[in-house]
Amino acid sequence: xxxxLRLAVASAWNRRATLGLTMVAIAxxxxxxxxxxxxxxxxxxxxxxxxxxxxxxxxxxxxPVQLMLYAVFRLGEATNNVRWSSFxxxxxxxxxxxxxxxxxxxSHRGFAVLATNGDYFEHFRYGYQRPLRLRAGRFFSGTxxxxxxxxxxxxxADSLDYTVGTRMTLSHGMGGTGLAEHADKPFTVVGVLERxxxxxxxxxxxxxxxxxxIHIDWQGGxxxxxxxxxxxxxxxxxxRPKNITAMLIGLKDRGAVFRVQRSIxxxxxxxxxxxxxxxxxxxxxxxxxxxxRTLLAVSAMIVxxxxxxxxxxxxxxxxxxxxxxxxxxxxxxxxxxxxxxxxAESVVVTMAGAVLGLVVLAxxxxxxxxxxxxxxxxxxxxxxxxxxxxxxxxLVFLAGMVAGSIPAWRACRxxxxxxxxxxx
Amino acid sequence: MVTPTAGAPPTxxxxxxxxxxxVFRWNRAQQPCIDIAHFEVAAGERVFVHGPSGSGxxxxxxxxxxxxxxxxxxxxxxxxxxxxxxxxxxxxxxxxHIGFIFQQFNLIPYLTVLDNVLLPCRFSARRRAxxxxxxxxxxxxxxxxxxxxxxxxxxxxxQLSVGQQQRAAAARALIxxxxxxxxxxxxxxxxANRQDxxxxxxxxxxxxxxxxxxxxxxxxxxxxxxxxxxxxxxxxRAAVSAEATV
Lengths: 424, 246
What we know:
The structure holds two protein chains of two kinds. Chain A is an alpha+beta fold.
């Protein structure tokens, strides 16, 4: 069998120009397949870890997926708010270690504005229990003097080219252009967060008091005509929030999570919903999962196209090789030798393609990795590893063998019909 | 029918090759292209198989080599019934006992001359064993014997002249001392001068390794070099009938 493999390699080398191009096609399709697989795993990971260390997310009663979408991913809007008194009641629950209020609704040039308090920076975790860290400046003070201070996520700062000290105004409402501006009450950037690869990167953080302050002369989503309260006077008003959008809760004992969840869901006075973020994220991923499976299917199809090219090239070469096959028959090669020669050739080309594909992918991940990380917040691992990748490579290998068996079958038939004297 | 040389006693009880009542057609609808009642080749004979193109030479060689199987009749080689063997056994038998030389394009283009000569040893343990302790040494000896200088050995086959290719093919057929050498028009792509030289080399080496030679050609002038002659035109009834129908 060893000498057959050597023959196959020598034969393939002899036609290296055409087979080389085919190999490159296979290599690129393998790069694509494994790249999609890696991106998929990385995306899923960073998605699943957008929130960690939070035991419950609470908002007005809606669907768990909806709640996660607006409270964590800043997508869509809450249909109802949560009363501040409810927040205080829940925060006072003896099982609750900490509670962070979240208030959403405004935006700055497409980026969501999140009003919260200093506890957010202390308790919020992402990835493997990683806390938020500052790249520059400081967290907002939360005092009345520093009411118009803002802390930016990394994406906001980078894409708008803002730094500490930049002054900015917020828009009322989310999304689109033509939003009413809170132009009379500009904010100053006091801090920029380090990149997290989560929605935090795309968020403008302000204090709850600031959220109240920019809305004191507003009513029903528009400035009250004829009323304008300049920023230096807002401190004289009661800036305690009346409503918030959602809250993050950490428990003293995680074992109590279902009990606390039930008590929040059954709270009298206001219809609320408490969800376990892990469970809700899984549900949400089911929705996104269709896309990832489609992507994987498309790249698998590209591999099939690459292999079809291989079959075509090997089949096309067969006619010129009938003499060669007859020589092999004359020195004792049987149809099964001829068949394994052809299959080995396809497998060798496929394997070489797969290896080249891995190299290209490693180069891409090495060179383009930082770019992808900064653009999309997805970390592409350079090394091979996951079981999924090994399985995919195994499938490519099998597909190469199956592809090789088509010309092999044809070669067998040709060599049986030709005998020792091919009719050329 | 092979006519024995006058006065020569029968050398062996079992002939090297014998054919008994074989009929072969390429497909069912066609007329048979081989229909031979009987012929045999004894060990050590050098048989000149003469036949014009279309007389079924190549088909007969396929049958003798066990690549093709007759629809009727038996082909025996070294006492073994080829028609009764499995396909794999016939493949093994072929490489173990027969060396082939073809008209042209004998060598595999992507192997070196030396690797081409060594091919039978790769497929046959018997040929490998009979080629001595190191088949490469034997291959080099044979290549020298057929006048191929050592600077050609590692060359690409395509850089060789046709004559050099044919001589390398002879070395390949001879390596591991198979009992039978079958040569199918090996000289027809050579000019007259080289034809004689090649033929003498081949006959000499066959004698040296004690192999029987079955030499097929349409060129009757070469017949004088051989001990026996087989006119395919005479023994193959199919060729006659085919000619009659034309």
